[in-house]
Amino acid sequence: MTIAEESRADGTAPSKRSWIQVAAIVVLSAVATVWAATYFVRSAPPQVLTLAAGPKGSTFERMAKRYQPILARNGIELIVLETDGSLDNLKRVEDPASKVDIAFVQSGLTPGDDHASLSSLGSMFYEPLMIFYRGQKRIERLSELEKQRIAIGPEGSGTEWLALALLKANGIEPKGETTLLSLEGEDASKALIEGRVDAIVLSGDSASLKSMRGLLRQEGIRLFEFIQADGYVRRFPYLSKLDIPAGAFDLGEGLPREDTHLLAPTVELVARADLHPALSDLLLEAAFQAHRRASLLQAAGQFPNPSTFKLPISADAARYYKSGDRSLTYRYLPFWVASFVNRIALSIIPILVLLIPAFRLLPQVFAWRVQRRINKRYGEIAEVERATLRAVLTEARRTELLEKLDEIEQAIVSRKVAGAHAEQIYLLRRHLELVRHKIGGLVSEPGLAEP
Questions:
Q1: Helix axis angle, 335-387 relative to 395-413, nearest 10°?
Q2: Cα(350)–Cα(178) distance, rounded to whole angstroms?
Q3: How far is residue 119's CA from residue 273's CA, in Å, rounded to a whole number?
Q4: Is residue 319 part of a domain?
């Protein structure tokens, strides 16, 4: 193979066909990667969500149903599941077999337990604990209910869990002299009115606010005021002190009769840790619409908030609370389109991270390749020049060396080279011409044999 043929085989610049092949491979690889990431790595958000709420008619159920029309506007069907309350909700959302995605859970229900599969989307609202009792005399401490009949809510409810914790702090425990009954909501209220129990414990996960207000109007039934509310809050950090002004429940009848101190845990919206980020944003948007207004128990804008007790706030929820809105794509595109765009973007970004530095290196690689070819030609020219030093040239030998220089020059000029390297090529040809001139000026001796 001649020098020119060798040069054409591995030319100093890539051909147009080579560039097309490289570009095609890059594009096809990117498309394949995006497709795989879109359909296998990051699946589309589900169109159905299941929320574990509480018993029928409870505050938890009423709050959960506020989410349904908001999510429906984005094509998400929310199934509100009737449950026994917070503890039951927590068990269900932890169990993958239950198919529960999110749940209302009373704060404080997870002390010391491992709930790595769960995260919190923040606190949604207060769940006031209201204790009603029969009697003409006002009681100031829960310990005064000892040896009486107390309905503490259904088994598996947050009401029962909290009631047992507070009663235990006052020296009242199960299987003691105090009778503890698993009555809830309307059944508990009816039992108190009929005198079948002496006190009942009600909260949002097992009763409605309507039931609680109804008891305030009953003769001989009182609402227990937590005079030691500050002490309880110190003892149980998941509780908050609520000050209910006189007449707040009913101004016409003046209920309650005087300012009253109550205790309330917050209710967190708990989700499985693998909840799709897009659904996290939608749920928080629904929560802001459902809970942000002022009410009897909260100021405007107080809920939802990122406060949690034991469970960690999810990364997506933390980002939402910090930015105060959904991501840009979800603000300006329909939910499903935005979800697809986001998944594509998350797939493309890693590719760009790899390709951009690679494309930045391409000019350097090409420059190195051209320089290597030029250096090779310099080596060939130098070898021709060295041949002139070995002996006095015959005419035949001089003609042969000049032909080699012609081949080298032909190989140089026959290949396309980027303009950025033209100066190096012209300098190479100038040096080649110097050697050619030198050989042409040498005196040959006819008949002299080669060494």
A1: 170
A2: 64
A3: 5
A4: no
Which amino acid, one-letter code, is at 234? R
The span from the CA of 235 to the CA of 238, in Å, is 9
Any idea which residue has 């980020």 for tokens? 277
Residue 420 belongs to a domain = yes
Using alpha carbons, list the distances in angstroms from residue 207 to 110, 114, 154, 202.
22, 29, 10, 6
What is the number of other CB atoms lying within 10 angstroms of the CB of residue 238?
Answer: 20
Supply the pLDDT for residue 290: 94
Check whether 20 has a pLDDT greater than 70.
no
The structural domain count of the chain equals 1
Instruction: Decide if 183 is inside a domain.
Output: no
Q: Is residue 370 part of a domain?
A: yes
SS (H, E, C) 278-342: HHHHHHHHHHHHHHCCCCCCCCCCCCCECCCCCCCECHHHHHHHHHCCCCHHHHHCCHHHHHHHH
Asked whether the beta carbons of 381 and 405 are under 8 A apart, the reply is yes
Distance between CA atoms of residues 411 and 376, nearest Å: 12
Is the distance from CB of 123 to CB of 268 less than 8 angstroms? yes
What is the per-residue pLDDT across 329-356, written as a single tens digit (0 to 9) for each? Answer: 666 666 666 666 665 666 666 666 766 7
Instruction: State how far the alpha carbon of 18 is from the alpha carbons of 15, 24, 88, 406, in Å.
Output: 5, 10, 65, 28
Give the burial string for 380-397 (b: 16+ CB within 10 Å, else e).
bbeebbebbeeeebbeeb
Region at 220 (left for phi over 0; alpha for psi -120 to 50; beta for the rest): left
What residue numbers bound the domain in which 390 lies?
3-31+363-441
Encoded amino acid at 291, one letter: H
Q: What is the pLDDT confidence band of residue 92, given thresholds at 50, 70 and 90? A: very high
Q: Compare 333 and 190 and report the one with higher pLDDT.
A: 190
Instruction: Report yes or no on whether pTM surpasses 0.85.
Output: no
Specify the amino acid at residue 401: L
Q: Taking the chain, what is the end-to-end CA distance rounded to the nearest angstrom? A: 26
